[in-house]
Amino acid sequence: MSTESKYGWNDAMELGLLAKMKSDLKVAMLAKDEAVKGAIRIVMSEFPTKLTIPITLESGKKSSRPKKEEEITDDDVVGIIQGLVKSEKQTLELKKEATSEYLQILECYLPKMASEEEILAWTRANVDLSQFKSAMQAMGPIMKHFGKKADGNVVKKVLAGLAG
After folding, report:
1. Could you give the number of structural domains in the chain?
2. Residue 2 above 70 pLDDT?
3. What is the pLDDT of residues 38-84, one digit of tens each?
4. 85, 107, 129 — which closes off a domain?
5. I want to staple 52 with a disulfide (CB 3.0 to 4.6 A). Which of 13, 64, 68, 164 is the partner?
6. DSSP line for 90-127
7. 88 with 47, same domain?
8. Are 110 and 21 in contact (CB under 8 A)?
9. Are residues 65 and 130 part of one domain?
């Protein structure tokens, strides 16, 4: 699949994730690349329901409104893609399949995940485990630093290794 060369995003690009996806959608439409077009449209269809801002109406009632395009951050979009990836992996597991074109397309828009070594090095340099009752309580600051680039399970493994 030539998706890796034409499509995809990484946080080193000057273009934001949403802008890159919109640009890739245009390219996919012109190239009649149905798989990429479909995958990007699925991601964007999640925005109105998943990306909302709480508001209070004049009556005092609590409500929410969809985020405007300029309010959508890369982390917002990454969160949606991660949810779709998780869902697709569960579906593939049930079908007893390893991967799908849809999954590969989604994954090329996710930032490169922090490796176990990177998480371990940052944790050793920046987190004093003696401040916590248990090493697992240090997950908060680590996850805050790495954001969506760290897998919680990898962080747990690193902390278990440091504690043990």
Report:
1. 2
2. no
3. 999 999 999 999 999 999 999 999 999 999 999 999 989 999 999 99
4. 107
5. 64
6. HHHHHHT-S--HHHHHHHTTSPPPPPHHHHHHHHHHH-
7. yes
8. no
9. no
Based on the fold, state whether residues 50 and 20 are members of the same structural domain: yes
Nearest 5°: phi and psi at 103?
-60, -45
- Mean pLDDT rounded to a whole number for the chain: 90
Regarding whether 154 and 86 lie in a shared domain, the answer is: no
CA distances to 23, 102, 131, 137 from 1, in Å: 19, 11, 49, 42
Q: Which tokens hold the place of 24?
A: 């890739």
Q: What percent of the chain has pLDDT over 90?
A: 64
Structural domain boundaries enclosing 154: 116-163
Give yes or no: residues 20 and 100 share one domain.
Answer: yes
